[in-house]
Amino acid sequence: MKISWLPTIAGAAVIATVIRAAFFTPLEAKQGAAQKIFYLHVPAAWVAFLAFFLVAVSSGVYLWLRDSRLDRFAESSAEVGVVFTTVVLITGPLWAKPIWGTYWAWWDVRLVSTLFLWFIYVSYMVLRGAIESPPLRARYSAVLGILGAFLIPFIHLSVYLFATMHPMPIVGKPSKPSLPNEMLLTLMLSLASFTLLYFAFLRARYRYAVERDAVAAAIDHDA
Amino acid sequence: MADVLFAAWVIARKDLAIEFRTRSAFFSAVIFALLGLVIFYFAWDPTAVTVNDLAPGVLWVIFTFSGLLGLHRSFGVETEDHAIDGLLASPVSRESIFLGKAIANLIFVAAVQLIAIPALVVFYNLPLGNVAIPLIAIAFLAAVGLVAVGTLFSAMAVNTRLAELLLPMLSLPFFVPIVIAASQSTAKLLSGRPIVEAAAWIKLLIAFDIIFVAACTVAYPFTVDD
């Protein structure tokens, strides 16, 4: 059997990250074990943003070049993005319950923005499923993929005006990161392994789209 | 530019003439809005929540949902006998078609509001008085953003298998900043706060209008070209 290297390496990296996060990274002093979810939540959020950013970029380029490969790329990236956004939306409330005392906080900017990302790209997938003609589907979803990227700052700003209680960024802030080195290393490893996992999923989903379209073309050809 | 706007106005007049003669969507949107006002009133405990706290949210939720009724019709009327093909074949730019549809929808939404807002004031016994003019300004800004996004999605949704189901699904996430900004600023006005306190929300509405009117006008031609 031929080994597929990208998913194998990505899977191994994620398992290694989880083991390191669970057993070889110190407990956070105040939050205890609950903080461990950070190594799953943050990289999943990063991958979700990367995925939707690439949807918007490939949608824009699609409208320019009209290359169906870009449409398949956007389709694949959106679907993988939705999966990771779902992970973010499940791990966030699980952490929030013991730490904030509530599963959900409407006044938190990132939480609500993430929920809307999920809504937009789920409806993106529904839109794709509701159109028969491939070029029409590609154009409509490209328009939605771009407009969705325009919407996010507005959602962000309108929830921000409600004030926030999300833990402030502690890695990318201007002063030195206040995360101890061991935790920072685990976080970096988790970001890297999740990014690999994203590309593994993306490639698998893209190949599926190629084969599906090839089958559809063959059926059309026979008919 | 003047040509584009003139052609847009001709298309808007066509749509408004159809609506004026059939009044199909207008009456259903008005009745829907009035029913919404009644249902929301009973969905709350009036001894726990004062009408001043309840009214802004009710107003803007009803505004978006009744707006959707008109928006669906906007391109829905063009599907009969492939009327849209005639419109696309006519010697006007795609931008004019989009803006014309949007202008007609804006007038439609404004006409529904012209009945729904006074009805809200009467039913909920609101101290409207001197906040009427800022409230109209907020309603206008909210309507422009709603109509820009909704018109584009209406054009897209009618060509899908899900049609009327897809329009709210696509549009509502985009209406959320409008509903938040409009209800928050209306709440400030109704509780007698100075309009400056609502300035951030009004700026948000203006920014939304500028970005999405431009983005949707540019995007519309991509949805029709073949």
Structure description:
Helix content of chain A is 76%, strand content 0%. Chain A has 223 residues and is an all-alpha fold. Chain A has one domain. The longest helix of chain A has 42 residues. The radius of gyration of chain A is 20 Å and the shape is globular. The two termini of chain A are 35 Å apart. The model of chain A has no long low-confidence stretch (mean pLDDT 87). With 226 residues, chain B is mainly α. Chain B has one domain. Chain B contains 8 helices and no strands. The radius of gyration of chain B is 18 Å and the shape is globular. The model of chain B has no long low-confidence stretch (mean pLDDT 88). At the A-B interface, helix 4 and helix 5 of A face helix 6, helix 7 and helix 8 of B.
Give a short overview.
The complex is a heterodimer of chains A (223) and B (226). Chain A has helices spanning 5-23, 38-65, 68-100, 109-129, 134-160, 181-222.
Topology at a glance:
The complex is a heterodimer of chains A (223) and B (226).
Chain A: H1 5-23, H2 38-65, H3 68-100, H4 109-129, H5 134-160, H6 181-222
Helix pairs in contact in A: 1-6, 2-3, 2-5, 2-6, 3-4, 3-5, 3-6, 4-5
Chain B: H1 2-22, H2 24-43, H3 51-79, H4 83-89, H5 94-123, H6 132-157, H7 166-190, H8 199-224
